[in-house]
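Data availability (excerpt). The following record was deposited with the supplementary files.
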Amino acid sequence: MAALSAVPAGVRSGARVIAAVVVVGATIAVVGVGSFLNGLSAVSPAAVAAALALTAAATAAAAWRWRVVSCGFGLPLRWHEAFGAYYRSQFLNVVLPGGVVGDVHRAVAHGRRQDRLDMAARAVAAERIAGQLVQLALTLAVLLPLGLTSPLAPLAAVTAVATALTALAVGVVAASRRGRDLLRREYRILRPVLASPRRMVAIAVASTVVVAAHAATFVVAGVAAGLHTDPRVLGIAALIVLAASALPLNVAGWGPREAVSASAFALMGLGAAAGLAVSTAFGVLTLVAVAPGALVLLRERFRRVPPRGMIGSRRSG
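Predicted structure:
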C-alpha cells in the first residue's frame, strides 16, 4: 500500500485510463464493434428524458444523504447547496479522469465555507462509502438467494468473495494495535452519525433510492436497445453492472462495466452482444443525465466574475 501511494498521482491516473481503454477495447474486440455501435444508436429522446428524471431523483437522494452525514458532523449544509454541488460533483467525476475529482471538489468547497476542511472531507468520504455498502448489501441480497443452480452463480460467488476480502482487510487492520487505534479514532469521529438510528435509517433509505434510480436507468437503456426480456432480469443485471462500475479501473464508468455486462448477459442466456449494447447505451445516458452539473459550474463561474463596470470602479478606487 505504501509503495502504491508513492506512485505519482498522474501516473496512477494514466494507468487507470489505459486499463479502462484496454478493457473496453478487448470487450469490443471479442463481442463485436457492431454491438457497441448499436448501443450508441439506441439512445433516443425518450430514453434521455427518462434518464434525466431518474438521475435527478438519484441526485436528490444522494444530496440528502450527504446533508444527513454532514449535519451529523456539525457542518451545516443547506438543501439547495447540497443538490447543486452533487450535480456538479457527478459531472466532474464523469468527464475527468479518476472518478473522484468531483467529490474532492465538493469536499474542498464545503470545507472552506465551514473552515473545517478535514471534517468536510470525512463527510464526503463517509457518505460515499455508506452508499457503496448499501449497494453491496442490496446486490448480495438479490444474488445470493438465486442459489448455485442459477446462471449468475459465478458472479454471485465473485461478489461474495469480494465482500469477504473486504471484511478480511478490516480484520487485518484491527489485528494490530496501531490499526485498532486508527479504527477507534475514526469511530469516535463517526459516532454522532453511527449512534443515531434516525440518521442511519435516512442514509440507508437515501442510498437505496440512489441504487434503484441507477438500476432503473439501466433498464431504460435495455428497453432503448430493443432488449425484450423481463424487467426484473434487467434489474438483476443492473445491480451487477453497477457494482462493476465502482471498480477503480474505469474512466467515467467505462471499463469493467462493459466486460461484466457482456459476461452477465451471456450467463443469463441473453447474449454478450446484448450486454455490450445495453452497457454502451447506459454509459451514454449516464453522461447526458449528469449534464446539469455543467450548468451548475457555469453559474458558479459567472458568479465569481464581477461585471466590467464593477472591475473599473474597484480599480479607480
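Summary of structural features: The chain has 15 helices and no strands.
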